């Protein structure tokens, strides 16, 4: 009998590990949604109806031999996965890949893709009517959303509000933030740092309703709609048995270098659920997935040393709409092929602005690397899916 690998969650990491082990052994992927959600495109999915369709990609051609069960894991211990339906799966190996939740529109908590698209359409209609938009949070989500809104409706007035002292906190450089600030200023986006609202706005996020809010400085600010652009929470509430001890107070899971839960030889975790000290990104989740697939393959075949995961240096590709934004990537040469390296060097030389020497790729390169296509082809290819005309 072949060993069953149960992968819990079909996000970026889950689909990668499931696909890499499909054919090696019996893979069961548990996922409550009817389609993969390409979250990287979610903010454009709000503002551009073509992208609302493109960000939902079917799962049905992901695995050739393995099985996808449309259900939610409600309890997972060392060897078993209990599903919402009451079914129980016995597994030789378990990969926890349940990611994180985030306020709409960055993520959507509706499992049915038709209903999720309706939610994006309704919010887009509300946003279209609004002249003044308040975005709470000046991290990557707040900035990207501001860029997408202005790309669709250049006349809207946008305020980004954040209690922190800088935009896009994390291990990025001051020069990177300065380049983003320069572009935000050029777009006419108002950034208010070190400030909070005294009270939550009276309307629901994403609802069209004019309100006036007071900042802790006493300034009054009127807007027609607001969105919450902070507050990701890892989805790990289903752990049971000895797995519970891996769960930290913030909900993230401690993992070893081999990406196993501490003290567990057959339970692995990847992506946003992990407590690995690095930015939570799809690219990291897929790198974790490849390490886990290699380790499970080696364990199944009884040979080879376990592979260890080493976090990379901080980096981010941050579009401001399809044509703007900036990329922080001090080791950019490690991520692109030789032809692209040549293109980037030539472009930087022509510009002569010194950004590349600081590990920063400018708006045009950011647009080429991600801003225009939002990496949808990459994941459509993995899923063997048609990205709905992308
Ligand atoms: C707006 C936005 C833009 C982003 N842009 C980028 C980018 O450009 N580049 C980048 O690298 N990263 C980006 N990220 C971050 C990236 O989306 C996350 O880091 C990534 O989704 C994490 O992947 P994951 O596999 O850990 O989990 P997820 O992609 O979150 O997937 C988890 C899956 O598990 C399922 N699930 C949850 N609970 C259960 C359960 N109990 N049982 C079964 N299944 C369950 C969920 O339905 C979901 O499908 C962005 C994030 C946002 C919000």
Please characterize this protein's 3D structure:
This protein has ten helices and 21 strands. With 390 residues, the protein is α/β, with parallel strands linked by helices. The chain has three domains: 4-32 and 70-102 and 232-310, 3-Layer(bba) Sandwich (FAD/NAD(P)-binding domain); 119-228, FAD/NAD(P)-binding domain (3-Layer(bba) Sandwich), CATH 3.50.50.60; 316-371, no CATH class. β19 and β20 form a beta hairpin. Residues 8-14, 30-33, 39-40, 42-43, 72-73, 97-100, 102, 106-107, 141, 235, 238, 271-272, 280-283, 285, 317 line the site of flavin-adenine dinucleotide (FAD).
Helices and strands, with pairings:
Blueprint: E1 4-8, H1 12-21, E2 26-30, E3 35-37, H2 42-47, H3 49-54, E4 56-58, E5 67-69, E6 73-76, E7 80-83, E8 88-90, E9 93-96, E10 100-101, H4 113-129, E11 132-136, H5 140-152, E12 157-162, H6 174-187, E13 190-193, E14 211-214, E15 220-223, E16 225-228, E17 233-234, E18 267-269, H7 282-301, E19 316-320, E20 324-328, H8 338-351, E21 360-361, H9 363-371, H10 376-383
Parallel strand pairs: 1-2, 1-9, 2-5, 9-18, 11-12, 11-16, 12-13
Antiparallel strand pairs: 3-4, 6-7, 7-8, 10-17, 14-15, 19-20, 20-21
Helix pairs in contact: 1-7
The protein binds flavin-adenine dinucleotide (FAD).
Residues 8-14, 30-33, 39-40, 42-43, 72-73, 97-100, 102, 106-107, 141, 235, 238, 271-272, 280-283, 285, 317 line the site of flavin-adenine dinucleotide.
